[in-house]
Amino acid sequence: MKEVVLKKFEELYGDTQGVNVYFAPGRVNLIGEHTDYNGGHVFPCALTIGTYVAVRKRADRKLNFYSMNFENLGITESSLDDLTPSEEAGWTNYPKGVMWAFAGRGMVMDCGLDMVLNGNIPNGSGLSSSASLEVVTGYILKDLYGFDVTNVDLAKIGQYSENNFNGMNCGIMDQFASAMGKKDHAIFLDTANLSYEYAPLVLDGAKIIVTNSNVKHSLVNSAYNERRSECEKALNELQIVLNIKGLGDLSEEEFEANKDAIKDEVRVRRAKHAVYENQRTIRAVEALKNNDLKLFGELMNASHVSLRDDYEVSCEEIDVLVEEAWKVDGVIGSRITGGGFGGCTVSIVRDEAVETFKERVGAAYLERVGKTADFYVVEIGDGPRRLV
Questions:
Q1: Domain residues for 65?
Q2: 199-248, pLDDT tens digit by residue?
Q3: Are residues 133 and 10 in the same domain?
Q4: Domain count, the chain
Q5: H or E element: which one contains 91?
Q6: Which of 36, 174, 249, 310 does the annotation list as catalytic?
Q7: pTM of this prediction?
Q8: Is 174 marked active-site?
Q9: What pLDDT is stored for residue 220 in this prediction?
């Protein structure tokens, strides 16, 4: 991939003198979905797939963006004097948003850039291609311009830019997982205070398989923002009777004892998911520490049921993938991962069942949905870095 982006850079901009290449990973979340903006725990890990960028400083204030994933768009031209979001800017709103957020913190670029990007995260898969792009942009700015920021800062800036420049009210999990990834470890993150620990992901005799439904429903952004709003309203209602900062502060028992304070049945279900999913995540990490993969898998399965029924962010295609996974002997657990309404599932599958899993789930998905699923046996990788 490094050579691929360098070759394209030379083709577009004439030569590769003074060009650097950077990488930031995508992520998969093992458990803890839609808890990050509710002050709960998440348990993601960085992948070895992600976003590669070849980049070189310019002598002027011009910005040139080119994505090998959207070659039909050609070079998108902009400037440091035009760091404003627009529909016409398309995918370039993500790197521009990070530049805008850096500038808002007093870290102002003194010259423009030529960029060539190539990502090997499937588009629309829910494996955080946008967070990967935000984090790699931030890492480029840190490295090329000497800005004094930590990788945790890069995660915060990426989330801030996505919230305030791109209008997507995401939590911090995706950017944090990309910025703080560690090979063969998942990150147990408390989003209420950003305290975290690395948990070794030693799945003896099992593999993590990401299954891409190859479906992404258009309502994902609007519905995501709607879910966040519903949780915020539920929290406000609970705060009338409880001294809490977020839904993640509650145990299941405390929630059940006070849920009548929420005056809408839909909001009760949204809040229930946030509370119960947070507790599931805490228990799942403990199970992993105790080498109890069986319990970890049961909690993954329960997570999917909650996301399907209480949070209502699944869809027919994803439910088929999960239902068919549950039927296969050797599947320890399977659930939707990511924002929802399409994208991917994540499954933990015993080594001896991996090929059977792909064959049976793939065939059943084609038969029931009429679409082809893609399977990735994923590896857990490190965070952002300069390659050249």
A1: 2-201+382-386
A2: 998 888 999 999 999 998 765 678 889 999 999 999 999 999 999 999 99
A3: yes
A4: 2
A5: none
A6: 174
A7: 0.94
A8: yes
A9: 61
